[in-house]
Specification:
single chain; 225 residues; mainly alpha; Arc Repressor Mutant, subunit A; Tetracycline Repressor, domain 2
């Protein structure tokens, strides 16, 4: 005999959340914020998971639950910093605006990223002898510079398909673009000779770089505003 629920309006008892329950995104963001700051200040070897957990106000178990290990957290912190300044939307080929406008927007965002205090500090840290091993440097490269270059290469590939650019070697062209954007100013910043440049100088530098890139690879289609 089936016994009906004597009180059908009563809610079913809550089931305990299983191990696959969604992560707390607020805690994840707090961990990433701390990791970005500490890794840029102290490098990979100079930061512990205990320190990150303490400053983020979470347990070390929570840090491991979100990121698995220190290497994954380091890579995630680098990717998150890049995404802040160079969001994926910048590289979408279907955005409105001319090719020149999109290249200029990407160039500006990239320059802001590489000239930030955190990026300059991290770059100096990664260049110091004895800072991390080769594997750590590879993690940094893949999560930061390589990821940005790959996204930009995809953008260039889409513009080549539209016949707005003619580029025999897209990977090389992507590297050339970002190297040109860095220019002398970025090296001066890394050497501690300056902390930045007037907005007007940056604007002229970016525009000149985009002009040079379009003269090298542009076909004229869609390059004007």
């Amino acid at each position: 005999m089936v016994v009906s629920n004597p009180n059908p309006a009563a809610p079913e008892p809550a089931k305990p959340a299983g191990p696959g329950r969604p992560k707390d995104l607020g805690k994840r963001a707090a961990i990433l914020d701390v990791a970005k700051r500490l890794f840029s200040q102290n490098g990979f070897d100079g930061v512990s998971m205990d320190q990150i957990a303490a400053e983020a106000g979470v347990s070390k178990l929570t840090v491991y639950s979100h990121f698995g290990d220190k290497e994954s957290l380091f890579s995630s912190a680098i990717r998150a910093k890049c995404e802040e300044q160079l969001p994926s939307a910048l590289f979408l080929a279907g955005l409105e605006g001319s090719l020149r406008e999109q290249l200029t927007a990407i160039a500006h965002a990239f320059f802001i990223l590489i000239s930030s205090e955190e990026a300059v500090a991290m770059h100096r840290m990664m260049m110091m002898p004895g800072t991390g091993d080769t594997h750590v440097r590879e993690l940094f490269w893949q999560a930061g510079p390589q990821q940005v270059k790959d996204a930009f290469a995809d953008f260039l590939r889409s513009r080549v398909a539209r016949d707005e650019l003619h580029i025999p070697d897209i990977a090389r062209a992507a590297s050339q673009f970002f190297c040109l954007i860095k220019g002398d100013l970025h090296m001066q910043m890394l050497c501690g000779m300056c902390s930045g440049a007037p907005a007007g100088d940056v604007e002229r530098h970016v525009e000149a770089t985009v002009d040079l890139f379009l003269r090298a690879y542009g076909t004229g289609a869609g390059a004007t505003a």
